[in-house]
Prior knowledge:
Thrombin, subunit H, globular, two-stranded antiparallel sheet, 9 strands, alpha+beta
Amino acid sequence: MTTLHQQNEAMFKIGVESSGHERREHRRHDMEQAGIAVDRWDGAKRAPKEFGRIVDLSAGGVRIRTKQANVKADGQIRLRMELPAYAGICPFVDTSGAQPQPKREWVGWLSIARVKPAQDSGEFEIAGRLVDMDEMDRGMLGLYLSTQPLAA
């Protein structure tokens, strides 16, 4: 007889509940081949520093590969992502003016859920949720990603 803990552990390993339902709110999309850089952002200096590259992305979170070892789970870092327009779709919306305008850049907070070493490369994979993205940006990012290949 398996315990609830063992069932939950198995569920997290495969990402699907035993009933067959996907446990993720947003689908992950493979972005590693695109080589898109993510910057660590210091708003006061307006000087981005390259933090790593996107491995996969969803409308709710991101997984990044980086060489920086000084990042801990359960922390937050401020990120800047600039994604290329794809199939005529920009991934974000600028609502600061009278009319919404397409934009390619998003600056916000990543709540780090997991940090683990990448396969024998001296790099680390950081995964977390994009916590302060507004709903219009999240919706446009979901539409943008629907044109991209899904991650495993």
